[in-house]
Every structure is written in C-alpha cells, then in structure tokens.
Amino acid sequence: MFELSEEQKEFKEMAMKFSRNEIIPVAQKLDEEGKFPQDIFKKAWELGLVNTSIPAEYGGAGFSNLDAVTICEALAYGCMGINTSIMANDLALLPIVIAGSHEQKEKFLKPFTEQFKIASFCLTEPNNGSDAAGIKTTFKDGGDHWIVNGEKMWITNAGYADLYVVYGTIDPNLKHKGISCLVVEKGAEGLEIGKKEDKMGHRASDTRSLRFNNVKVPKENMLQNPGEGWSIAMKTLDHSRPLVASSGVGGAQRALDCVVQYANERVQFGKTIGQHQALQMMIADMVMKIECSRLLVQKAAWLADNNQRNTDIASCAKAFATDSCMEITTNAVQIYGGYGYSKEYPVEKLMRDAKLLQIYEGTSQIQRLVIAREALRN
Amino acid sequence: MNIFVCVKQVPDTETKVQPNSDGSFIETNAIKWIMNPYDEFAVEQALLVKAANSDSTVTVLRVGSVKDTEALRTAMAMGADEAILVEAEDNLDSYMTAKALKGAIEKSGKTPDLILSGKQAIDSDALQVPQLLAQMLGLPSVSVVVGFEQNGDKLQIKREVEGGSLEVYEVTSPAVIACNKGINTPRYASLPGIMKAKKKPLTQLSLGDVSVSEEDRRVKYSDYKLPPEKPAGKKFEAMDEAQAPGVVKEVVGLLRNEAKVI
Ligand SMILES: Cc1cc2nc3c(=O)[nH]c(=O)nc-3n(C[C@H](O)[C@H](O)[C@H](O)COP(=O)(O)OP(=O)(O)OC[C@H]3O[C@@H](n4cnc5c(N)ncnc54)[C@H](O)[C@@H]3O)c2cc1C
User: Fold this and answer.
1) pTM
2) How far apart are CA A250 and CA A254, in angstroms?
C-alpha cells in the first residue's frame, strides 16, 4: 500500500481544489471574526465531503477509512478550524454508525444524507475531560424515556447541531460500566445551549457548553444497552483519532508549503534563507515528520478498514501527527521571522490552530497512556 | 440533444515546462495533467444545456495520449455521460486534432446538435481547433463566448471583443461554440460524481480509426526552447518630493536608452 488508488487520488485532488478555491480565500477572515463557516460547510456537504463515515446502505458514499483520512487531510490543509466543524459531524455520527440498530441508522443517519445537517459529539464535562469515564451527566429511567441531567463542556458545533450524541451514566458508582450513549434531537425541552467560547484558534468552529435540565429522551434513542456506552466511545475514537491525526498532516503540509515558498524568496546575507544550512535542517525535519505522520495515519485507517484492532496505532498516529504539526507550525513561524508573527502571513494562524489538535479527542499525554498500556499488555 | 464537448488535457498551470531532449516537444514525463481550464466552461455549459433539454446526452471527446485520462474522467465526474478518447501523441497540430475530433464525432454514430469547446488551450494557445472543426463539419462557429441562451435550435450567443464590448450573434444549431471565462461557473466534480464516473463508458479509438495520419500534419514542431531569462527588475526610490524629479528623469532615461521602449 504505497500509493493511493486512482480514485483516492481524485478524491484528494478534488478536496484540495475545494480547499484552495473555497476555504483558503476566506479562512483568515472567518478566523478573525470567529464566524461559523455555514456556507462552506453546506457547499462541502453538497459535494460529498461531509459525513464520510455514513455507509452506502444509509445513503452515504460508502467511503473507507483510508478515503476519509485522505479527504480530511485536504480539507485541513485549507483550514484546520473549518475542518473541525466538518470533522465533528463524523465524530458525532460514528457512534450511530458503529452501534446503532438498523432503525436508528435509518432514523438518524439517513436525514444527514438527504439534507445538510449538523451534529455534535458530547462527552467532555467541566470536571471530566481526560478522565472521561468519570462523567457525571445522569440518565435516569423514566419508564418509556430517559431523564437526562448534567452539563457538557467544549462541544463542537453545539450552537448549530440538529443532533447531539450524548454520553452519560446510569449510575456514577459503576464508573465506565455505567456509561451509556443517547441520541438527543435539537429543541429537546430542557436542553440549554451555552455561549460561544472565545478561543485561541479554530475560531471559525463553534464551541459551547450544554446544560441538560430534566431532558426527556425516548428509550429507543439509546445506542445498544445501558452500560455499553464506554465501549462505543472507545470504538468511535479508534475511528476518529486517525481523522484528527490527518488534520495534523494537512496543517503541517500547509506550513511546509508556505515555508518552501518563503524560504525561496526571502533573501538575507545575500542569499535566499533556504540556502542557509541551519534552515535546511529545520525544513528536512518538517518533511520527515510529515511523511512519518501520513504513513501512521494511513496505517491506522488501513487497519480499521481491514477489521484489525488499531487502538495503539490510532493513538500513535494522533500523538505523532499532532505533536509534529505543532512543532512544524511553530518552526514555520520561526522561519518567517518577524513576518511569521504577523496576522498578515498565514503561518501565525497555523500555529494557533495546531495547538488544539494536541488537546481534543484525547490529549497527547492520554495518547501516550494508551500506547504504553497497549505495549505493556504484551 | 446530442451534445459534444471537446476537452484537452494540458500541463497544470504550476508546471515548469521544459523542452525535451531533441527539442521536438516538451518533456511530458513528470507533468501533472489537468483539464484545460477553458474546457471546464464548455463542460459546464453542456451540462446546463442537458439539464434544460430532456433526453440529452453529453459526450466528451479528447485527442491525446492515453497515459493519463484526467480530463475525461473529470468531465464525467462533473456529469458528462460518456467519453471518446482518440489515442495520439500529445504533439498533434491543430489541423490533425480537428480532423480527429470530427472522426470521433462520426464514429460515435450520433448526429451532433451542439458542439462545445474552450476558446483556447492554455498550453499551445493556438486558438484554432474549434474553428477548423466547424469548417470541416460545415457548421457555424463562434468563439470567445461569454453568453449562451437557447431557444429551440436558435442560439443567442454573446461574444467578447477587444475593449470589453460584446457582439451578439444568432446562430442556428448545430454549431460549434468556443467558451470563454464568464459564461458560467464550472461545478466541482462531487465525490459521488467521481465514483460514478468509473462506471461510465469510455471508448478508445486510434488515429487510424478516424483516418488521421502524419500526412495531415500542417505544422511540424522542431525547436522548442525556453524564453531567455528576464533580467532582475530595478527599483527606484524617492524618499521625499524633492528627490522625485531626479528619479523620474533617471527612469525615463533608462526606459529610452536601455530598455528602448519609449
Ligand atoms: C475547541 C475544543 C473543542 C472540543 N470539542 C469537543 C467535542 O466536540 N466533544 C467533546 O466531547 N469534547 C470536546 N472537547 C474537549 C476535549 O476533548 C478535552 O478538552 C480534552 O479531552 C482534555 O480534557 P480537559 O480539557 O478536561 O483537560 P484535563 O483532562 O483536565 O487535562 C489537563 C492536562 O492534564 C493532562 N492529563 C490529564 N490526565 C492525565 C494523566 N492521567 N496523565 C498525564 N497527563 C494527564 C492532560 O494531558 C492535560 O495536559 C473540545 C475541546 C476544545 C478545546
């Protein structure tokens, strides 16, 4: 597998064209204004770039994980923040794809292929981030429905979502054995949407808190059985972490392309800065890390496509690609010198955007915990 | 309606073109090919006409090497129904290309109701093929087209002329219409479109199949060279108003005596 298929190359090319023509020209402005990329998101949906995880039986295109990471890298190349909004849809729909019954898939996934819709994945809480098994949101049995109470934090797309995939517990004392997963529809009574967070980067994405005050959710909206939510969440992350990792590859590739252009133009001490060997060392490191990151992402996706356990490699990909993206974008600012520190040039935003990739969907530290745990098991 | 679109595959606009070893053409090995950008307008126009006329098919035609069929696949991913490739070296002249296109249309077994193309290909920039093809088929042709309205077999065609003014033509189809930027906004090939394109028919013909041989060649390419490198530009600075007249004088002097443009 050392070449993408012809079709994957075409997907990538098309997504790159979309990034270049539709995303890059407006990304800076949307970032500055903190404006949600509604039009771009919708246009991307029309072209089949969104909800890549929905299977063909439910109206999706039937992409493989390898297809999906290839498309994701190209969109993140345009803007990591806008890609976060797009990717969050998949993160939210994946639990339904993985664990939903036929009826649930018909009911919840199909509408996303027929109309432009937005979804949120709601796991994190104010007091439980990395320690997700400790979440406090409760699902109380109310007969034919569940009663949801609690608070969620840092929820991407929350202000625009039509569907919320929410994790809670039927009993906090059960720890991860109590975790369950419910699909909550927009407008549910008692669902309060918090104010938009003012963030360092990914400013075009919409991040909010959510409060559930006695929200009644029909029993048939639970994915699998009560207490099976933890394994759904873990399987979801096995699929979604390669996506976050591929955004890191996209962001890093963008930084490298900017650097290559600048290093061939900017002259100091009578030669282009790219001819100073110290900078060449930095550029070589960028290239190496991007290549390694992309290979890890592809391996993680390939394993998932071939129904092989990918937990360790998905975490390797996520940690390596996002840490590399942070380093590469930081060095891109360095190579641009003072100009790199200005919003007039693209690398300043890349550096701000890269930071989030090391935090969400499991911090780089948590990925290392997963990798070490998997390694020590043998 | 039987709508035909002629598309050419050209080097990506960012390609740094190099002559090949004997100077008879450009080095094509490492080139990334794209659909000629003007042809995207033609494909889009064909798809718009198809949408407005039930029972229409869009057939894309290309004459060129088979190594990479980017342009045809893109056109089918955008929505064209089928494709015909006439396999040939990439260095045909305009006359041979037009004759091969005519042959491909005839081989398709369909009588054309409309033929669309780009106004020019961005690699050779000859601006000849649509007109030659129209002449060979005995059809009217209009180029540099920025407006297209159809009313039955009457076409109202707007054409851009020097100075930005427009000429309006009424043409009876079938006709050959060569499109310019501004006529429409080409759609993207959607991802499902790309997947569907795989299953659409692509017929391959040889130059022999369309009765084109080296004897049809009117132009022989023999000495491809890169243009001489431009010398570095000069920058003039006047720090204040008082310096300005002196600087202007210097610039005018150089333009007159060195660059010899005034
Ligand atoms: C913009 C944005 C969007 C987000 N979108 C979503 C979303 O859509 N849905 C969702 O559910 N969540 C989302 N999140 C939440 C994100 O996943 C969490 O922020 C992340 O998991 C970290 O949790 P935390 O912020 O509570 O940090 P903490 O868990 O408090 O971690 C703080 C620090 O301690 C470290 N740490 C914690 N535990 C350990 C340990 N055992 N060993 C070593 N180090 C440790 C962490 O690595 C980190 O450096 C989003 C966050 C942001 C900022």
Assistant:
1) 0.90
2) 6
